[in-house]
Structure formats: structure tokens, C-alpha cells
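Worked example 3 (structure in, sequence out).
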């Protein structure tokens, strides 16, 4: 099967994203194998993927986290740092993340700070991480119950996306990850939106969907590496979605909440279109939640300032507008 390659051009650190099937069996070529590598993963990522990566990297160690968002924490950050020190890692060595966004964010943050920064390679294995979190250089850990509060912008040396890894994801995780592609297409690319909407076999064509979604995110992050402006568009669906996710104690998946969150900021016509695509992939279009709690979470969102928050709206699929709303305005939208 054909491989897609995307080059991310940034001022200081450019890198390639390689997307395709069966890449893990032949990844040696992407690494300087003389280095030592610490592979960071979690205990839900199938061991077969780690085995393949280790085969290519003879001088590697593995650090396995427990799975789940609450493990993206300071205690694990410190444990990994101690592990690097124990194995005498130096500036010429590297970190490899093999897993979803949780592993990628934590491993990237470790790489950004160990000896003031060592090489970082990302092998994302969930659809969310392949389509979204593996690009853009955001790394972070959670602290004092605040998500992603400590982190850094730090670019990887390469991102290697083997779409075969998606075969072991549950259908629910897969479709939840697809929401980020739906989000990107809804704001920038009507053709991709319709492609996802009408695709007969989304599993078979997922490499193309990932490729096209990453091209959108590439344009955004190349223009706005550190989220000073344009990058806000990637928050479509996230203002309310993220608050719902937290208010419901993560019982709904991230993508499921973002999907619901997009509907609040869409015109009736766009909303109908987005609802159709969500339903097609068994994604919820509504849920019950504690309105007061959701509103309070939005008020304390890192992105809100002086009781106002800038939000992304889609009036027509493929285009977006930025509107600054007060917390009271958002309250009126909630059910
Ligand atoms: N850095 C960014 O730009 C960015 C963007 C969006 C989200 N994120 C972060 O990403 C995280 C969420 O990522 P996620 O949705 O990938 O969740 P996750 O990393 O927690 O993975 C979800 C589950 O899938 C398992 N898993 C991973 N790969 C698998 C595979 N191939 N087969 C079977 N199981 C597999 C994991 O072990 C885990 O149990 C959050 O921490 C979020 O903050 C970061």
C-alpha cells in the first residue's frame, strides 16, 4: 500500500510524518540506531507493537505506564526521569512514544526537559493521536487535577503512523478519534467532510483520512506554532465538549464530547450535517450533564479571560468564524 509523507516546516525544527500500513515491521530506516532509546508505552498498548519497535532498536529500554489519563502525571514523569538517569542517557540518546495521546504527551514532555531536550520520536497508535495529537508539538502532564497545565512546545524528530495499529482499537475508540478528523474537515475542507460522511469503508480508507486531516493541521501549526491566533480554530467543539468530558468524569470519550460540543456552535444547516455524520459513526449527538458544573468549568478554562472566551463557529461546512462570547452567552446555549 502507498505511503503518505508530510513534511512539517517550522523555523527551527522541521520533521516528517510517515503514514501507511505495515510500517512498524520496517522502521529501522527512520532512526539512527546507534543511539540508546527509551520506549515509553502503556499497559493497554498491544505488546506486539513494542516487539516490532525493539527489533529495529537494539539499544532500547522500555518503560510501561499504567493506561488512563490520570497516569499523565508528575509521579510518572519523575519515575521516567530517574529511569533515564539510571541508564545513563545523554544528549545524543532519544525517547520513543508508542501509544495514544496520553503516552505521547508525557513522553514528549520528558524528551523536552531531560538534559534540556533530547530527541523525540512519536509512534501514535490511537486514531486520535494519529490524526491530531502527534502533530503540533504540544506536550504536557496534568497536575493538581488541571489537565495539561505543565508542558512545553517541543517538536518530534519524526512521527511514524502505522494504520494497522488501529485494528486493535475498540470501535468506540476508533470512532471517537474520527471526530477530530470530522472537526478539521468541518472547519476547513468540505470535500473531506463529505468524503468521511459518505465513505463506504472508513477503516479501509483511514490512511487517506488521516493524511488529509494532517494536511489541514499542518497548515494551521506552521502558521501558528505556539497558539497565538489561528491555532484556536482547532478548538472547534472543545469549549463545551471539554467541559462536558470533565463534568461527566470522563465516562464519555474525548471525541464523543467534542462531537456534541461542535453542535452548539454550528448554524442549523451545518448542525444537521454534523449530526448526520456523528450518527453514521454511532457517536452521540446529545447527553445529559450538570449545566452549572459545565459552565463553571468553562469559566475556569485556561482559554477564558475576563469572563469571555473566544469560540469557533461553523455556519457553512468547510468554513469557520471566531466569535468572542461571554460566559453568560454560553450559559444560554446549554440545555
Ligand atoms: N498534544 C496534543 O496536541 C493533544 C491533542 C489532543 C489530545 N491530546 C491528549 O491525548 C490524550 C488522549 O489520547 P488518546 O485518545 O489516544 O487516549 P489514550 O492515550 O489514553 O489511549 C486510549 C486507550 O487506548 C489504548 N491503546 C492505545 N493504542 C492502542 C491500540 N493500537 N490498540 C488497542 N489499544 C490501544 C491505550 O492504552 C489506552 O488505554 C489526552 O491526554 C489528551 O490531553 C493531546
Amino acid at each position: 500500500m502507498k505511503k503518505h509523507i508530510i513534511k512539517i516546516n517550522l523555523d527551527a525544527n522541521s520533521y516528517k510524518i510517515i503514514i501507511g500500513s505495515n510500517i512498524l515491521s520496517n522502521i529501522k530506516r527512520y532512526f539512527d540506531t546507534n543511539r540508546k532509546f527509551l520506549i515509553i508505552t502503556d499497559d493497554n498498548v498491544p505488546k506486539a507493537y513494542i516487539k516490532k519497535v525493539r527489533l529495529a532498536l537494539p539499544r532500547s529500554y522500555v518503560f510501561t505506564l499504567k493506561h488512563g489519563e490520570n497516569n499523565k502525571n508528575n509521579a510518572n514523569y519523575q519515575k521516567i526521569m530517574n529511569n533515564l538517569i539510571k541508564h545513563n542517557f545523554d544528549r545524543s540518546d532519544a525517547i520513543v512514544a508508542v501509544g495514544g495521546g496520553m503516552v505521547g504527551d508525557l513522553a514528549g514532555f520528558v524528551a523536552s526537559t531531560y538534559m534540556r531536550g533530547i530527541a523525540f520520536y512519536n509512534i501514535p497508535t490511537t486514531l486520535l493521536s494519529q490524526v491530531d495529537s502527534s502533530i503540533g508539538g504540544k506536550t504536557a502532564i496534568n497536575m493538581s487535577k488541571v489537565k495539561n497545565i505543565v508542558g512545553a512546545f517541543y517538536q518530534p524528530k519524526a512521527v511514524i503512523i502505522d494504520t494497522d495499529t488501529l485494528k486493535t482499537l475498540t470501535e468506540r475508540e476508533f470512532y471517537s478519534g474520527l471526530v477530530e478528523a470530522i472537526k478539521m474537515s468541518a472547519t476547513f475542507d468540505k470535500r473531506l467532510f463529505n468524503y468521511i460522511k459518505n465513505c463506504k469503508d472508513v477503516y479501509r480508507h483511514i490512511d487517506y483520512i488521516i493524511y488529509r486531516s494532517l494536511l489541514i493541521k499542518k497548515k494551521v501549526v506552521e502558521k501558528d506554532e505556539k497558539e497565538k491566533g489561528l491555532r484556536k480554530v482547532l478548538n472547534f467543539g472543545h469549549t463545551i465538549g471539554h467541559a462536558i468530558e470533565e463534568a461527566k468524569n470522563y465516562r464519555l470519550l474525548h471525541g464523543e464530547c467534542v462531537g456534541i460540543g461542535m453542535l452548539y456552535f454550528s448554524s442549523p444547516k451545518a448542525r444537521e450535517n454534523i449530526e448526520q455524520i456523528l450518527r453514521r459513526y454511532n457517536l452521540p449527538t446529545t447527553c445529559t450533564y450538570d449545566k452549572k458544573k459545565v459552565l463553571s468549568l468553562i469559566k475556569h478554562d485556561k482559554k477564558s479571560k475576563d469572563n469571555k472566551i473566544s469560540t469557533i463557529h461553523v455556519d457553512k461546512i468547510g468554513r469557520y468564524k471566531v466569535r468572542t462570547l461571554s460566559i453568560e452567552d454560553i450559559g444560554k446555549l446549554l440545555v
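Notes: Residues 42, 44-46, 67, 69, 72, 99-103, 105, 125-126, 128-129, 132-133, 136, 138, 148, 165, 168-169, 173, 254 surround nicotinamide-adenine-dinucleotide (CB under 6 Å). The chain has a mean pLDDT of 95.
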